[in-house]
Amino acid sequence: MTDSVLMAEMTWPEFEARVAAGAPVFLPVGATEQHGPHLPLGVDVFLPSHVAASVAAEVGGIVAPCIPYGYKSQPRSGGGQAFPGTTSLSAHTLSLVIKDVVHDLGLHGARRFVILNGHFENAWPAVEGLDLGIRELRRDGIDGVTALRLEYWDFVKRETLDRLFPDGFPGTDLEHASLLETSLMLAIRPDLVRMDRIPNDGPADFPTYDRTPVWPDRVPPSGVLARAQGSTAEKGQWLLDDHVPLIAAAVRAEFGL
Ligand code: ZN
Ligand code: MN
């Protein structure tokens, strides 16, 4: 029997036995989206997948394959859809993908779910997909599903943010491809971070509303919305040292593990 937490590395009898024993199933939901000239397009896949695997290892969970496409990048939280490589789903498509995955996992015995979001814009389509999936399971006579849905970046202590941003935290939406994501990538995949290409054309100065078409000069040309200068692997580790135990504590509390 494999020790892996990754569903993709399990055989079906191993998967069946673990969900029958009550293992929570983590579903990371990501995006394929520009993250500036210094980070790869897969940041929103790498980070929630890593956090999910770390938490699953602590709580005896299973990590289903990450959904690699997310809801459309928005100018004020991801730079928008215009950057080459940013490849997205419609909101209803993403919801239906999550619905189908939750439904099949439930049919095969999963009763505890953690939808772990790694891309700001996915939040409400993920709520919808989870709701539809649970509803469909109920129609199939399957009750007793408990599900958590969360953004990993919310699991951070105030004091950690104060240490990271002595001049004040700009907010998670503006943090796109900036200090948090760059530091986390330096902690988990330093081989994919081009420190010499960190731009200096931010921070973005957005109004408190959306406009279509967006004023092209409102999004920094690099696609980095705040500042990535000062990112280090150590800061990324501070974040992981909050994210992983705090999410694990919530999962244990909610599922009685
Ligand atoms: Zn991101
Ligand atoms: Mn994103």
Written account of the structure:
The chain is of the alpha/beta class and 257 residues long. The protein has a single domain, classed as Rossmann fold (3-Layer(aba) Sandwich), CATH 3.40.50. 40% of the residues lie in helices and 7% in strands. The protein contains eight helices and four strands. The chain has helices at 12-20, 43-59, 75-78, 91-107, 123-139, 158-164, 179-188, 233-255, and strands at 25-29, 62-63, 112-117, 146-151. The protein has a four-stranded parallel β-sheet with strand order 2-1-3-4, with helices on both faces. α4 packs across α5 (123-139) and α7 crosses α8 (233-255). The chain starts with 11 loop residues before the first helix and ends with a helix. The model has no long low-confidence stretch (mean pLDDT 96). Bound molecules: zinc ion (ZN) and manganese (II) ion (MN). Manganese (II) ion (MN) is lined by residues 31, 33, 44, 78, 119-120. Zinc ion is lined by residues 35, 43-44, 176, 181.
**Which superfamily, in CATH terms, is the homologous superfamily?**
Creatininase
- The residue-averaged pLDDT reads 96
Q: Rg to the nearest angstrom?
A: 18 Å
Which ligands appear in the coordinates?
zinc ion, manganese (II) ion
Unreliable stretches: none
Order of H and E elements:
HEHEHHEHEHHH
Defining traits:
four-stranded parallel beta sheet, Rossmann fold, 257 residues, 4 strands
Produce a short descriptive summary.
The protein is α/β, with parallel strands linked by helices and 257 residues long.
